[in-house]
Specification:
By secondary structure, this protein is an alpha/beta fold. It contains 15 helices and 20 strands. About 45% of the residues are buried.
Length: about 500
Amino acid sequence: MNHELFSIKHATVRYLNTLLFNSLSFSVNKGENWALIGESGSGKSALLQTIAGRFNVTGGTVDYYFFDDFIKQHPSTDGHLTYHKLVALVEPKHHFKNLSNTSDFYYQQRYNSSDSEDALTVEQYLSTISPVSTGNVYWHRDKVIALLNLIDLQNKQIIKLSNGETKRLMIAAALIKNPVLLLLDSPLTGLDVQTRAAFNTIIDEIVASGISLIMATSPYEIPAAITHIAILKNGSIIQTMPPEQFNADIYLQDDKDEVDNMELKALLNEGDEKKHYHHIVKMNNIHIKYGDKIILDKINWQIIPGERWALLGPNGAGKSTLLSLINGDNPQAYANDIVLFDKKRGTGESIWDIKSKIGFMSPELHQYFPTDNSCLQVIESGYYDTLGLFRLSSKTKAETALRWMKAFEIEKYARVLLKNIPASAQRLCLLARALIKNPDLLIFDEPCQGLDAHQQHHFKTLVDTICSMSNVTLIYVTHYQQEIPDSVTKVLRLDNGLVAD
């Protein structure tokens, strides 16, 4: 009897013209659950995609023994079944379609009532997913809804879910398929403190149901059910070991971080002379409602120039909706008493007037940002607040974009399309895009998602250095206390759409 679940031996793996792995060997036995650890760009996501059959494998051998076993146990199974259907991959980004299944969703759609109606509810979406086998299935809709805490979200349109709620829905959808093999790519990103704390229990139940698990994760967030760890570096598996032999402290960064302060100061001094404002944001008794659901209620918030705020709260608390009122993305701003940059909303200012003063980054922006521009073009587009560069590149602006790439240690990707670089580098490009025009207000919504320990530390140092050199105002959202920059001195905490004590 073969105890191997699958085996990859000496395989060459490519995506388009890029060599991802050379002589890749990786085998998983039944009953094993693996964590993939490594720096950003080391190959963790690429390995999961390879196992799922998404990339072109040449040379070597790939054997999916679990597929042969499944066919033997289910001889009446559809003859068109392939191993792909027995593997469920939960990626950092979702691939939801609208109701007519004609196109993808777009950024800002969740805030426009008529357009957001063109979306399935959570309950409808889960109803579209079926298990491979029609026999006795362990994971059914009611079970996953309860496990992933989706009961109160069943009638909510998927486009209106928060980042963390979306992640829970994606895991639930993967479980309904009752896969033999579940692949999770950074499953904890975007989840609030409570959900992360419950994640061990969730994983335990998944594993107890007989599903084998492989997950790419932080070295500090390895579930107890993991039996083996693979460490990746530069597209190679350099070491495997049981969890008890793994030391996460090797990933701790030296507190010293090399930031070119003179170059950063020069970059921050570029652009137009700043205007003086009495208030960056002034909100009075904000009330936001979609249908019968109240999203925000009785919110009063004043932000003075130069203040640095942390905006905190669990998934679904209303943080993203509150930010959308500031960033000009939510039309309900006109029905509320909101002053931005000393000008009341609805008194003649355009959305572009508002956006020109704000540098913004969020998981939703990353989700929907077009990826067919080069990284340099993506960053240059920050001058124009467009989702991509739709005009001829300016030599001067492109040079400044490259300088910001160097500050973020990603200059090697300058001429590479955004879609062809690691997700962590994509996020850093969008962060540089937010900074390039030296805005009066920076809004960073979970900016460190998907970044490795060094990248997180470097970004936090950059933010603190920028704050020490300028009077920029900052709103910073995170579910991780340690990510909050030292320059943040004020906190607004939301819970269920209300300001929490």
